[in-house]
C-alpha cells in the first residue's frame, strides 16, 4: 500500500478527531455500559472495542463505506443510493441512525464549504460512512488506507469517550489505541473480503446499550 503525500494529508484531515462533524458528542452506547459498570477500566473498554471490531455494526459501516468509495470512483449513483438506504435500515436504534445521518450531513456540508466535491452528491439523509467514502474517493485517497483511517477514527472516538466516562488517563487511552493497532489491521483485512451476502453483525449488545441510554439519569453524550 503506497499513499502519496497529498492523499495522506487528506486522509489525516478526514479521520482527525478535530473534524467538526460532532463525533465527540456520541458514545455509541458506551455511556450506558460505563453507568452500569460493564465497562469500568482499560481492559473492559478494550474488550468492548475488540468485540465490536470482530462482530459489531462497525464492520457493516466500513464495508459499505468501501462500496461507496467504489461507486463514487465510477460515478455509479444508483449503487451509492442503494447502500445509503441499506445502511439506514441496518441501524439498530433511532439514536444510532440519527447519529449517522447528523455526522454524514455535517461532513458533506463541511466539504462543500472547504473544497466542493467534484463527484456525486449523497442522497439525503446521508450516512456518515457514505459521506466518508465519497470524500475519500473524491480526494483520491488509497482505498486500503481509507478503510484503516475510518476504523482508526471510530476507535479513537470510543476511546476518547471512555477516557471521560470511566474515567481513564490520557496515557492509558493512548496505550489502548496503540494496543488496538493489530485488531484494526486484522479487521480491515477481513472487511475488505466481505461479500454482500456476508454483511451481518451481532449487535444486540450495542442496541440494548443505545436504547437504555435514553433513560439514564445523567448523560454526557447523545448516544
Describe the structure.
The structure is a single chain. The protein is mainly α and 223 residues long. The protein has one domain (5-12, 23-207): Urease accessory protein UreF, CATH 1.10.4190. Helices cover 67% and strands 0% of the residues. The protein contains 11 helices and no strands. It has helices at 5-14, 30-36, 42-55, 57-73, 77-90, 94-114, 128-138, 143-165, 170-179, 181-193, 204-213. Helix 2 packs parallel to helix 8 and helix 6 (94-114) runs parallel beside helix 7 (128-138).
Helix and strand layout, with pairings?
Blueprint: H1 5-14, H2 30-36, H3 42-55, H4 57-73, H5 77-90, H6 94-114, H7 128-138, H8 143-165, H9 170-179, H10 181-193, H11 204-213
Helix pairs in contact: 2-8, 2-11, 4-5, 4-7, 4-8, 4-10, 6-7, 8-9, 8-10
What's a concise summary of this model?
Helix 2 runs parallel beside helix 8, helix 4 packs parallel to helix 7 and helix 6 runs parallel beside helix 7. By secondary structure, this protein is mostly helical.
**How many domains make up the coordinates?**
1
Provide the CATH superfamily: Urease accessory protein UreF
> Class, according to the CATH hierarchy?
Mainly Alpha
The appropriate CATH architecture is: Orthogonal Bundle
Annotation field: number of helices: 11
Number of strands: 0
N- to C-terminal distance: 35 Å
Output the CATH topology. Urease accessory protein UreF
Please state the structural category: mainly alpha
Helix content: 55-70%
Provide tags for this entry:
223 residues, mainly alpha, Urease accessory protein UreF
Amino acid at each position: 500500500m503506497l499513499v502519496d503525500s497529498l492523499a495522506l494529508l487528506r486522509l489525516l484531515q478526514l479521520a482527525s478527531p478535530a473534524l467538526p462533524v460532532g463525533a465527540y458528542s456520541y458514545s455509541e452506547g458506551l455511556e450506558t455500559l460505563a453507568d452500569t459498570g460493564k465497562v469500568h477500566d482499560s481492559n473492559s473498554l478494550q474488550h468492548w472495542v475488540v468485540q465490536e471490531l470482530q462482530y459489531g455494526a462497525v464492520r457493516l459501516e466500513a464495508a459499505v463505506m468501501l462500496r461507496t468509495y467504489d461507486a463514487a470512483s465510477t460515478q455509479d449513483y444508483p449503487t451509492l443510493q442503494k447502500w445509503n438506504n441499506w445502511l439506514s435500515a441496518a441501524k439498530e436504534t433511532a439514536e444510532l441512525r440519527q447519529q449517522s445521518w447528523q455526522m454524514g450531513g455535517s461532513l458533506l456540508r463541511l466539504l462543500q464549504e472547504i473544497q466542493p466535491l467534484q463527484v456525486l452528491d449523497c442522497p439525503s439523509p446521508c450516512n456518515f460512512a457514505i459521506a466518508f467514502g465519497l470524500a475519500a474517493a473524491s480526494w483520491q485517497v488509497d482505498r486500503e488506507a481509507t478503510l484503516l483511517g475510518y476504523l482508526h477514527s471510530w476507535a479513537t472516538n470510543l476511546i476518547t469517550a471512555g477516557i471521560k466516562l470511566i474515567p481513564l488517563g490520557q496515557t492509558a487511552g493512548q496505550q489502548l489505541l496503540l494496543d488496538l493497532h493489530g485488531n484494526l489491521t486484522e479487521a480491515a483485512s477481513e472487511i475488505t473480503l466481505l461479500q454482500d451476502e456476508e454483511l451481518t453483525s451481532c449487535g444486540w449488545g450495542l442496541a440494548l446499550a443505545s436504547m437504555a441510554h435514553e433513560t439514564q439519569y445523567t448523560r454526557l453524550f447523545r448516544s
